[in-house]
Amino acid sequence: MKTLFPAARISDQPNARAMTNGNGTHGSAGKNGSNGSASIAERIARALPTLTPAHQRMAEYVLGNPFRAATMRIDEFADAVAVSVATANRFAHALGFEGFPQFRAELVRGFEATLAPVEKLRTELARPATVAEVFAASLEEDVRNLEASRRALDAETCERAVEAILAAERIFVVGFGASGFLAGLLQHGLDMSCRTVISVSGAGGASTAARQLFKLQPRDLLIVIGFPRYVYDTVAIAKRARSHGAHILALTDGPTSPLAPLADIALYAQTGRQLSANSDAAVLAFIEALCGAVAYRAAHAVKAAAEMTDFLLPWLHGAPPGQGRDAHEPREPRRDAAAEGRAKAATARRKKTSPNAS
Fold first, then answer.
1. Model confidence pLDDT, tens digit, residues 9-43
2. Cβ distance 210 to 310 under 8 Å?
3. Cα(190)–Cα(339) distance, integer angstroms
4. What DSSP character marks residue 266?
5. Which Pfam families would you find in this protein's record (predicted)?
6. CA 94 to CA 354: how far, in whole Å?
7. Dist. CA 94–CA 283, nearest whole Å
8. Is 259:224 a contact under the CB 8 Å cutoff?
9. Buried-exposed string 57-85: b where 16+ CB fall within 10 A, e elsewhere
10. Which of 37, 44, 51, 170 is deepest in the core (most CB within 10 A)?
């Protein structure tokens, strides 16, 4: 079967970035040196007096919708402003670019991380494939993610992470977006091995999470979860907690993550994916590995598991007779048909022997 998502696209180095030049840009795309470092807005401002009415309409669209324009092919852009493809290409020339591809590359600059999933999806959807091939390729992609994460494990960092979790008086877990669901699963996985684990990624959002984290004490641990595209609130809360002296463990994708420099300990999971921003399955597997390591090192882990299971028996389907939920629910007294019959007969005899009986 052909490979839909080539293995080479997933870097063994976490969070691989595009190469840039010294000033953080991707170099000149223009045909004229004076425009090499100019932004799209600056180019439009300089060229505006000489632009045709159609080109001015296109310029207004770009300035008003820079992100949307950056995601469009030339035919989509032309349709959006009701011009021909040739006119769209001439617009790029009017701004000093060799053609529309160079114009779009410049427009994308600054949106690279945000647009990466869109571009990957666009590329993969252009490849002919059956649904079964997409299924198989997606599973293969997660296998590669997990193998890359396994190879990148640092023994000392893993030890420090587990020790910090077990030593914490309370553990607060935070993540937003898809990481909010993962935060709940991490809380669930650590709950059996730790004293108190609280997920603050609830319905109240970042402000409610911040109110909870205001209660952080020196012996507590904050675990932050964030992967590209990083949610601003996660980073902001980590910065705030850090400024107040919180101990932080980060689950993220690599040293270039905005969460990495804020953390005392950082664990990195490879999460590359072609048809979405990240592989949540790869992160979940990493979380389960962390929870397994904590359970392995926790004192009285078996005793705690047995006690929790015993406590949960009333809510477990298929529990042994007398142990399931039905054992804890009130039951109606058993009806004895023979006894009811004898009682009715005695009542009838009393009626017959009564002085008032007719």
1. 333 333 333 323 333 333 333 343 344 446 788 88
2. no
3. 55
4. E
5. HTH_6, SIS
6. 117
7. 46
8. yes
9. bbbebbeeeeeebbbbebeebbeebebee
10. 44
Q: Tens of pLDDT along 219-247? A: 999 999 999 888 999 999 999 999 888 99
Q: Which two tokens stand for residue 114?
A: 């945000």
Label each residue of 74-139 as H, E or C.
Answer: HHHHHHHCCCCHHHHHHHHHHCCECCHHHHHHHHHCCCHHHHHHHHHHHHHHCCCCCHHHHHHHHH
**Residue ranges in 214-336 assigned as alpha helix (H):** 232-243, 280-297, 301-312
Across 29-53, b (16+ Cβ under 10 Å) vs e yields bbeeeebeebebeebbeebeeebee
- Enumerate domains of the chain plus CATH numbers: 12-110 (1.10.10.10), 154-308 (3.40.50.10490)
Residue 222's H or E segment, with its range, is strand 221-225
Strand 221-225 versus strand 197-199 pairing type = unpaired
Query: What's the token pair of residue 149?
Result: 């994460």
The pair of structure tokens assigned to 168 is 């914490």
The per-residue pLDDT for range 140-159, each reduced to its tens digit, is 888 988 999 999 899 999 99
- Collapse the DSSP code of 51 into the 3-class scheme (helix H, G, I; strand E, B; otherwise coil) and give the result: coil
End-to-end CA distance of the chain: 97
